[in-house]
Amino acid sequence: MIIGILGGGQLARMLALAGYPLGLQFILLDPSADACGIGLGEHLHGAYDDQQLLARLAEKADVVTYEFENVPADVATFLASHTRVYPNPKALAVAQDRLLEKNFLQHLDIPTPKFLPVTDLTELQQAMQEIPYPAILKSRTMGYDGKGQVLLKSARDLPDAWRKMHGVLAIVESFVPFQREVSIIAARSPSGEIAYYPLSENQHAGGILRVSECLANDHLQQRAEDYVTWLMEALDYVGVLALELFDVDGHLLANEFAPRVHNSGHWTIEGAETSQFENHLRAILDLPLGSTAPRGHAAMVNFIGGQPNTGQILAIDHAHLHLYGKVPRKGRKVGHATLRSDDSAQLDSALKKLVAVANSVDDS
Amino acid sequence: MIIGILGGGQLARMLALAGYPLGLQFILLDPSADACGIGLGEHLHGAYDDQQLLARLAEKADVVTYEFENVPADVATFLASHTRVYPNPKALAVAQDRLLEKNFLQHLDIPTPKFLPVTDLTELQQAMQEIPYPAILKSRTMGYDGKGQVLLKSARDLPDAWRKMHGVLAIVESFVPFQREVSIIAARSPSGEIAYYPLSENQHAGGILRVSECLANDHLQQRAEDYVTWLMEALDYVGVLALELFDVDGHLLANEFAPRVHNSGHWTIEGAETSQFENHLRAILDLPLGSTAPRGHAAMVNFIGGQPNTGQILAIDHAHLHLYGKVPRKGRKVGHATLRSDDSAQLDSALKKLVAVANSVDDS
Questions:
Q1: pLDDT digits over B16-32, tens only?
Q2: What distance in Å separates residue B58's CA from the closest CA in chain A?
Q3: pTM of the full predicted structure?
Q4: Which of A102, A224, B39, B294 could, after both became Cys, cross-link A184 (CB 3.0–4.6 A)?
């Protein structure tokens, strides 16, 4: 079987590494000549909306999927009319647009922070009559890793914040005073079978994920499973999906979802019986889903901007290194390491060491 | 870093899959145009003794290693004079020749079955005055998976058995009435650090490995570790080595060793904290070795001759599939599955199911 992937970065790379043992082959469409997943599959080199390349992808691949959701909506529709595409174009369209996404979540009774759409400065000023400061102005599309987001502390910030949006459609939402950021990752098959991973607790800085920890038996697990179930069923979703949530005094508010494997689930490679990457492939191929049970305690630390010293990471007990083969660049995710241990104190101790190494190379 | 591998089969494939997360790249020399590891690295297509290709391999690779030990001895020597090669040519030379190997083991006080060298029928007949029936006549070189071996039940078998050797140098050895076949896999760094995996208990049929089980805390673990330590130190060995042993009434007799990652260690991918593949790469790169601790109970079943149905394997709880992307052919190893569980009864139950599937596709 040949799996087509839109995007050839580290998520495609890790999907391919998980897929080879299942006997799968890969074909990756990516505009970059040196995307880090390229060596693991045939590379279709060109733009995401290149009709000729898309036609070749659809022809060659048994199933097409995404590692990157910000592709033009008509690409998903074109592909879906020529071959099997998971997740489906609707899931992609909703996930791409913060307004559609938030409305969709609200419609499903999944709580979200308060938000309002904004198309110009006047609307922003009006919206901020209803939404308390601090708040965040976010572009509706193309945002990831904190890009396209501006913090609003007072009415004085509004004109400058709106200028930074460069006229794109936006939403403004209240900044919720959360205790924790968590995410739930789940995989759903065409038959409707769903497998849920334990919650991840996520630490961001500068809008970029830094650390995720697996939370086995968290008291909010069931609530998060309910929300992701409603979402996946409403979208008739197939594959892995990640739903990011804020924990505000024990209440979960949905932030956003990603229609793909997700950075906060990278710990599943060693920390769960079956990784999110393998389960995504199993789901889109309509194969039985693998166990999502945690293997002991696990955490993940991103390497951002700079490459860590391999020997230094491998000398940390319980550490598993995952470099992406990317040239380091300011703010760029170049790899991560997972920690896995049967002992939580050992994990905490190793995590301190690993975070120190990650901070030492972090230039963002 | 670029790792060169002599051979591009499933062992090279699994080395590469373990090496990508360490940020490594691969270059594989293999005479076959469709060796199953090829997609994971640059392919040098030609004979193992092609001087031009070897020179290119030595030039491009930071370290060269083997997935296949039966390459001409002068290849190892040529490479070692041009680049780092692990394991070293001596280890390869000893492992290639059953007579050198057995003499080497004896010299280290590692017990072996009784054996004698044989160069013609008269010598064979003389040798069988000293060695009891049943015995096995084995070619000194190029034997694997039971090839080049003939069982001797009585003196009447000798002329025919010798004819089957086609005049090659051979040894004859007593067939030991063992209770178990076990193997120990260990990794050694240039600095002399050694990491030992738990023993594997191995079941062969028709000379081909069928099932391996991880034996945590076996009473013969320490003895096996002693033997493999003596062997690795005497060879100044770097990398992973597998020593196969017979357990005869609680005494271990060495059968043979493989200077490479080994089929009986495939369970380490999911069943140990660090796989044999990753530890081989760590060793030859002089990186800290990873923990060899078992993760619960583990076993491995080979798929031989026929491809199993993916969905059928993945429906077995605790099963992890590893297909090699090879065209099925009689007696050919096309993949394996690992079972891993924290519960030994669950593992046993899953093992029965998995063996049944493997037997249903086995044509050997």
A1: 999 999 999 999 999 99
A2: 21
A3: 0.96
A4: A224
